[in-house]
């Protein structure tokens, strides 16, 4: 049983998170054709014309129409390809006509005129993020979570013996990486450099990856030491999962994006673990 105050604290924290919304995108491709007599076809395009299929700016897209294009990892198609019919200058099939491709923005028509030699059609397809709901009970999470480190933004500090250790470090994630939970304001320079959620990656220029926590703590207790930290990308992923999670459709690499219909995008794993410590419920990936 969870005490009532833990329930209340959990719900207060959850209220501070945005509602989880699926990411939706519109994928587009432009089809180009030229006329010869009364016939339209891509084979009539000249070397100075755009390619048969282009992007919005006319740059090359795909060689053929992407009828069987696979959705990106983590997304799914909402519908089949269809001509965009929102342009008031298009005909019933989505075509826009003009004397040349250069004039499609200035002298376009929804009907074929005697002066029109080219036509363009915009195809669109809806794409939406694919979320996998997964429930757990009590402390049986079923997945091991980890967070990616951004080593391009490393920062180093020196800790000397005559100063009280200014950082509170806690093990986080399935790899138990030492993470900054609190920075003392006694050293404003340090406070401005190191942030909550930063991860310890080096002690005295030696990587701590794979080092036992007790050994790291011994190094930190030395008269002085140089510490290197790196922020995370705030992208939490599954490193491993049990059989039940696998059956639910989860796998290594899935990104944790929500908890109880609240968004966890840009939320640190440190804070997610704090949330879970107050109440274990279910999340959505």
TrEMBL record:
The protein's name: TECPR1-like DysF domain-containing protein
Residue ranges occupied by any TECPR1-like DysF domain in the UniProt entry:
22-125
Q: Which domain of life, per UniProt?
A: Eukaryota
| Pfam families, per the entry | Pex24p
Q: Name one GO cellular component term.
A: bounding membrane of organelle
Q: Which organism is it from?
A: Thraustotheca clavata
């Amino acid at each position: 049983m969870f005490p009532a105050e833990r329930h209340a604290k959990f719900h207060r924290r959850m209220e501070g998170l945005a509602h989880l919304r699926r990411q939706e995108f519109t994928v587009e491709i432009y089809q180009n054709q030229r006329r010869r007599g009364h016939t339209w076809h891509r084979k009539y395009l000249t070397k100075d014309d755009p390619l048969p299929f282009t992007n919005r700016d006319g740059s090359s897209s795909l060689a053929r129409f992407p009828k069987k294009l696979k959705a990106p990892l983590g997304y799914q198609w909402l519908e089949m390809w269809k001509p965009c019919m929102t342009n008031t200058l298009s005909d019933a099939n989505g075509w826009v006509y003009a004397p040349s491709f250069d004039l499609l923005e200035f002298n376009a028509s929804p009907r074929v005129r005697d002066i029109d030699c080219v036509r363009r059609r915009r195809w669109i397809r809806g794409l939406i993020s694919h979320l996998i709901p997964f429930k757990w009970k009590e402390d049986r999470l079923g997945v091991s979570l980890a967070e990616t480190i951004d080593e391009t933004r490393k920062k180093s500090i020196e800790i000397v013996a005559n100063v009280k250790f200014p950082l509170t470090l806690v093990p986080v994630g399935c790899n138990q990486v030492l993470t900054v939970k609190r920075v003392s304001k006694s050293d404003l320079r340090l406070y401005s450099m190191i942030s909550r959620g930063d991860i310890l990656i080096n002690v005295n220029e030696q990587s701590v990856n794979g080092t036992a926590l007790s050994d790291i703590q011994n190094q930190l207790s030395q008269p002085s030491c140089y510490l290197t930290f790196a922020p995370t990308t705030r992208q939490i992923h599954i490193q491993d999962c049990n059989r039940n999670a696998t059956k639910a459709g989860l796998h290594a690499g899935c990104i944790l994006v929500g908890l109880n219909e609240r968004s966890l995008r840009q939320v640190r794993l440190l804070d997610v673990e704090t949330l879970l410590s107050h109440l274990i419920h279910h999340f959505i990936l």
